[in-house]
Amino acid sequence: MENQRLxxxxxxxxxxxxxxxxxxxxxxxxxxxxxxxxxxxxxxxEQMDPDAVLLDLNMPEVDGLEAARKLRRKPxxxxxxxxALTGGGTxxxxxxxxxxxxxxxxxxxxxTDVLVRALRAG
Length: 122
Prior knowledge:
- There is one protein chain.
- Helix content is 43%, strand content 20%.
- By secondary structure, the chain is α/β, with parallel strands linked by helices.
- Helix 3 links the parallel strand 3 (52-56) and strand 4.
- It is globular, with a radius of gyration of 13 Å.
- It starts with 6 loop residues before the first strand and ends with a helix.
């Protein structure tokens, strides 16, 4: 996946963080479709069949953990790369993220190259 253009759905309810990370990823050559809610992210995944999903874990209404569970329930999403990006990285939260179906767990702030590698892995 290193040389192909990666399509990423990214959900974060913080406007500034979402815009900043979207710009960073776009500048790295990724095709980013950003949204502010888990519901939007799930809908975009159904419509687009992205290569990866980047989710903030602490979201209003439905959190990133539940989003990963919903995405993983569908057979067509079993190979979908799902990456958590959160402000808090406790061991318990990491365990819950893995159980929910995340492939990678990153904490903010994160270096752009680390984030891109996490999305491209697999």
